[in-house]
Amino acid sequence: MARNKEALVLLLDVGPSMHGVLQQVENICSTLVHKKLVYNKSDEIGVVLFGTKETCNELAKELGGYNHVVVARDIKVVDEGTTNALQNLPRGTSPGDFLDAIVVGLDMLIRKFGNMKGKQRMCLITDAQHPLRDPPQGTKKDQVDTIADQMKRHEIKMDCIVFRESGVPHNAVMDENDQLLYHFRERSVTKVVQVDSPTSLLGALRTRNVLPVTVFRGDLEVSSNFKIKVWVYKKTSEEKFPTLKKYSDKAPASDKFASHEVKVDYEYKSVLEPDTVVPPDQRIKGYLYGPQVVPISSAEWEAVKFKPEKGVKLLGFTNRSNISRHYFMKDVFSFVPEPGNTKAIVAVSSLARAMSEMNKVAILRCVWRHGQGNVALGVLTPNISSVKNVTDSFYFNILPFAEDIREFQFRSFSSLPSSSQPTEEQQEAADNLVKMLDLAPPGREEILKPDFTPNPMLERFYKFLDLKSKQPDANVPPLDKCLKRITEPDPDVIDYQAPVIKKIGNAFELKENPKKKKARTQDRLTYTAADDQAKLLEEPSAEKVGIAEILFPAEEKVEIGDHNPVQDFEAMLAQRSSSTWVQKATVEMQKYITALIQDTRDGDNHQKALECLVALRKACIIEQEPKEYNGFLTKLYQKYKTADDAKFFQFLLSKNASLISKEEAPDSDVTEEMVRNFCPKPEPFSQ
Amino acid sequence: MDLDPEGLFRDDSDEDDDNVQEREANKEMVIYLIDASPKMFTPATTAKADEKEETHFHTIVNCITQALKTQIIGRSHDEVAICFFNTKEKKNLQDLAGVYVYNVTDREPLDRPDARLIKEFSCIEDSFVNNIGSRYGITSGSRENTLYNALWVAQALLRKGSVKTVSKRILIFTNEDDPFGGLTGAVKTDMIRTTIQRARDAQDLGLSIELLPLSRPDEEFNMSLFYADLIGLEGDEIVEYLPSSGEKLEDMTNQLKKRMMKKRKVKTLSFAITNDVCIEAERSFICNDTGALLQNPEKRFQVYNDKIIKFSARELSDVKRVSSHHLRLLGFKPLDYLKDYHNLRPSTFIYPSDEQIFGSTRVFVAFHNSMRRLGRIALAFYGNPTRPQLVALVAQEEVTSAGGQIEPPGMHMIYLPYSDDVRYPEEVHLTSDVVPHATDDQIKKASNLLRRIDLKNFSVCQFANPALQRHYGILEALALGEDEMPDVKDETLPDEEGLARPGVLKAIEEFKASVYGENYDQEEAEAAAAKAGASKKRKAASDAAEQKSAAYNWAELADAGKLKDMTVVELKSYLTAHGLPVSGKKEALISRILTHLGK
C-alpha cells in the first residue's frame, strides 16, 4: 500500500467571486477526505486557502509578500481535524492570486518531503478571473516556468479545476490566466479542467485514487511478424458501493478489541441424508445438463477445458457503422502504447489516426492472461489526443458472442395503429422539446457530462458515514441541491421552457388505463403536486412510466400504497368490473395488514393496521365474505398472540373489530359467544 | 370432450405444478408437430449428382436437435414433446390414427429435454421408416384426418400447467401447403372446417399455434391455401410468414431460433451453472469474536477513521434511494457526445407500452422520430434501487432484411459511468515531454493497411463463444456417454491465410518499415540477444549456486536437523540449484528444501 501513499495539498480559492460555490468546494473536499479515511488512511493532506482577509504562511513570514494566503492545515495524515478544517471555509475578502497559492503549496511539499520520492500532488480550485500580482522580476510566464521546473524536479503533479459560472463573459484577464495554466500543462505534469456548473464542480475532482493496474502487457499482433507493444488498462470501472461487513453484537461490551465481524460458514448436506454433513473431499463439481447432473472432477475438467493461448490478435478492420453502439457489453479498456517506446507510440498513433480518418474500427481477439478460460472479442476504437504530451491510444469494448444476443421482434412503429402515431402537430411539439431541452447548448460546457458527474448515491453515503461517526443516531441527509440536478431536470430550465413543455403536455393526451390500479399513479401525482407544476412534469414522467413497463414486465401492478391504504382499498373495491377485483383487494389488504404488524415497533403501526382492519371488516360484511375476514383474523391472532403485538388484539376488541358474527352476516358460522371469547383478556401469555 | 382418465389425473396435480411454476415464471411448453408424410422425404433440393440429397425431414430433425441443444443449456426447465403426424404407426393416449408421439424411456411425453432424447432423436432418421413409418394421412378414400388428430393430441399433451404461468406453443413443420387438396366436395369442406375449429379451440385455450413452412423445390409454399386460416393470420401478416426455402439448414435454424425467443422479453443473459443439485447448502453466521451462532444479522458496519460505524438495512436503502422514479428524462444531447468509453454494462432495450397509460406509445414514437431526425440522444436518470444511474437513450431505427427484423425499433438504454468510474490510463505515464505523433506519410501507410485487412461483412453476432461451446460440448459428450471429446472450432482466431496474402503482407511490411524503420527486425534480434546475455548471466549464477550447494550433503544435514543452523544464503544456493523459488522466511526455505528432499 505504501507505494500508493499520497501527499496532497488542496489550494482553495475563497475570494469574493467564489463565495457562491464554496459550499460545493467544501463538499467535494470533504468527500475526498471521507474516502481517504476509508480507503487510504495513511495519506496526508494539507489545506491552503487564498483570497482570504488574513495572511498566514511561512513564505510570508520569511520573505514577505504572499499576502492573503492562509495555511489552514499543515500536511498531516488525514483525520477528523482535516474534515473540520474543510468545514465552514471563511469567506475571503480579496481576489485570489493562484500563483501565490501554488508557490506556497509547493514550498510546503518541498519543506516537508525534500527530495523524498513519493506521490505528491497539488489540487487547485479557483475561478482564475482576477489579475495576478506582477512578479518582482521577469514576466508571469517566466515565473510559471520556474515553478514548473521545481515541480518537475520534485515530481509533483497538479490538478487545476477552473470554475466559471456560465454566462460570465470572457475577458482579457481570464485569457491571460488560462494561458498561464495551460503553460503549466506544457511544462509540467498538470491537468487543467474547466467547469461551469456547481454540479460538475462536484465531479471534477477525482476523490479516490486507484492505483492503475495493467490488464495486459505485451504485443498487439497485427500479423505474425508485425507486433505493437501495448499496455492495457481499465478505462472505466464502476466504483461500487462499499461492501459493508455484517455486524455481530455478541461480543461482550468490555472486549475492546472485538472485531464484531461475522464469519460465514457453509455446510453441505445430501438431500437423501439431511443430517450428515458432506465433507469437502467427498464433494465434486457437477454441471447441470437438462435435468441430468454431470459430475466431473476439477482435474478432469482441467484436462479437457478450453485453454486459449495468451495474446491479443487482430482479426481485421471494419466500418464503424457495422458495430452498433448498444452492443458494447462491459466496462471499457484502454490500449496505450508501451510507455517510453517511441516506435510503439508512433505505430499506435498512425493506426489510430488512420482509423479515425477512414471511420474504421478494429476487431480484436484478446486473451489477457495465461490460463484464462475464455476469450474476449471486442472492438478497438481510436482515441486521438489533443494534448501534446499525451499519446494517442485506443478504447476497447467487449462485443457479445452469438450466444449472448437476445433477438426479440417488436412491432414496427410504422405498422402501429393510427391512434399510436403522432400527428404532425404533436411531432412538432416533440421536436421542439428535444431542441429546447438541450444539455449541450452552444457556448457552454456540456451539462451533466459523465466525466464530471458525481455519483449521488456514493456522495450521500460518505456524507452520512461522516455524520454518523459524530452522531450515531443521525438521520439520512436529504440529497444536496447540486446532486438533485443529476436525478431530476433542472427546475430553472424547466421554468424557462415552460411554454414548450406545456405545449407538449397539451398536444398529447395521456390517459390512465382504468383497469390498472393506482398505487404507482398516486405516487406520481403527489410528486407533481409537490412541484406545483401539475401539467408540466406529468408529461415526461407519464411517458417514462409507460417505458418502465417494459423494463419490469413482471412487476405487481396491484398494490396498496403506504400513503392512504384504506382509500386505495376502497378504490379497488369500487372497481367492480369483476368479482376477482374484490378478491384481489381483500388479499392485498390482508398482506398489507400482516406486513404492518410485522414491521411494527412499540405499536407504532397499530393505529394504522387497525384502521385497515376495520375497513376490511366492513367490506367483508358488505360483500358477504365474513369467512374471509374471520379466517384471516384467526390466523393473525395465532401468529402474533405471543409477541408484543398481542396488545394489538386488545386494542382491536375495544374498537369492535373482532370476528364477524352470524348476526352481522348470515354466511358466518361464528356465534356471538365465540366473538366474545375470541381474545380472552386477562390470559397470561403462557405459550 | 377430452375426459380421458389421464387428463383428470393431470388436473389434480395442477396445484403442484403451479407452485413450481411460481418459482420458474416464464416457463414454456412446446410441442413440435412434424409432418412425416412421404412428401417430406423427397429431396428438398435439386441436388447435384455428387452431393448427398437432403430431405426436408432431415433438415427439420437437424434443426430441432439444434434447438433442443440450445434449450437444454439455456432454459432447461421448459418442456417439450415431439410428435409426428402422417405416420403408419400410432402412439398416443387418445389412440388416434396417424399420430406418433415420440419419446425415450424415463421421460414423460411432455417433459424437460434430456441428453438421451437429444441423442436418440438426432439419429431418428435411420430407424424412422422401420419403426414409425410414413404414409399419406389424408386420402380421398379414408375418413381419417391426421392433422386434426395431431392437433388434438398436442392439445391434450399441453393440458398440464396453467396458461397463466406457462406459455404453451405448438410448432407445425410441414411442406404441404394444401393438406386437403386430395379431397373433394363435402368431405373436404367438412374436414377443413373441423380442423380449423380444432385449432381455434386450442387457441381459445391459450395455446399458440405457429407454422414453419418449407417450400418444395418446384413450388412455393402457399399460405393462403389453408394454413393462414388455421393459425388465424390476416392480410399482411401472411407476408411475415415468408416460407423458408428449406435449402439451407442455417436459415431454418435461425428462423426457429427467432421464433423460440420471440415470447421472452427478459433482459438477462442467463447461463446459470449451479453446484451439484443433490447437495443443499446451509449457511450460518458465526460471530468472529465469540463463536456464537447468529441469526441473520441486520446491521452492517464500516470502519471509518478507526471507528466502527453501524448501519441498519433500512438506512442503507434510504441512502441508495436518491430518486423515486424509474426513469426521469433530463434533457437531450447531440449523438456524438456519447463517447466510446461511456459504457459499463450491456444495454437494455426499451419499447413503449400502453398498458398503464393510454397514449404513451404515441409520445414515445414522437420522441423517437425527433431524436432520430435531430441526431440526439436523451439523457435520463434511472432510479434503480441498487445502483441509480445516468443513462443515455439512443433511438434505434428499425432494420429489416428479407429474413425478417434485424433490429427492432425502440430505444437502447446505455448505462453511463460517473466521474469516479472513469479513469485516465493514458495519463498515467505522463511526462511533460512532447510525445511523437504519426506523420502524414505514416497515416497514409496505415490507411493502406486498413484497406487491405478489411472485414467487409462483419456482424457482431457471427462468432460463437469458443469457451461456452467447448463447455457444453464436453457436458453433452459426458452426459451422452460418448468417449471422444468433441473438437470445437475456435472461430475467433484470425484468418491466417487471409493475412498471408501477398497484398496484405506488402501493406504490413510497408507500414512496419514506415513506423519502425527499415532495420527493426535486426534491432529486435539484437535486443533479444542482449536479453539472452542477461539470461546467460542468470545461468551462470545458477551454475555457481549448484557448485556451492554440491559442497554440502543435504540429505544428511536434513536428517540431523542441522538445516536451521545454516545461513539463508546457503539455503538459497540449494533452492537456486534445483530451480525452486527462493522467497519467504528461513522456515519457509527449510520446509521447501525438506519437501524437495521428500522428507
Please describe what this structure looks like:
Chain B: This is ATP-dependent DNA helicase 2 subunit KU70. Chain A has 22 helices and 18 strands. Chain A has 687 residues and is an alpha/beta fold. The model of chain A is unreliable at 513-560 and 681-687 (pLDDT under 50). Chain B is of the alpha+beta class and 599 residues long. Chain B has 5 domains: 27-45 and 77-261, von Willebrand factor, type A domain (Rossmann fold, 3-Layer(aba) Sandwich); 285-320, no CATH class; 327-425, Ku70, Chain: A, Domain 2, CATH 2.40.290; 440-453 and 465-518, Ku70, Chain: A, domain 4; 532-597, Transcription Termination Factor Rho, Rna-binding Domain, Chain A, Domain 1 (Orthogonal Bundle), CATH 1.10.720. Chain B has 19 helices and 17 strands. Chain B has helices at residues 5-23, 56-74, 115-122, 124-131, 146-157, 185-204, 227-231, 237-240, 249-261, 313-320, 360-374, 440-452, 466-479, 496-499, 502-516, 520-550, 554-559, 568-577, 586-597, and strands at residues 27-35, 79-85, 99-102, 166-174, 207-213, 279-287, 293-294, 299-304, 307-312, 327-334, 348-350, 357-358, 376-382, 389-396, 399-401, 404-407, 410-415. In chain B, β13 and β14 form a beta hairpin. In chain B, α5 (146-157) packs parallel to α6 (185-204) and α18 (568-577) packs parallel to α19. Chain B starts with a helix and ends with a helix. Mean pLDDT of chain B is 71; it is low at 1-25, 47-51, 243-251 and 258-298. The chains are: A alpha/beta (687), B alpha+beta (599). Chains A and B meet through α1, β8, β9, β10 and β11 of A and α9, β6, β8, β9 and α10 of B. β10 (262-270) of chain A pairs antiparallel with β6 (279-287) of chain B.
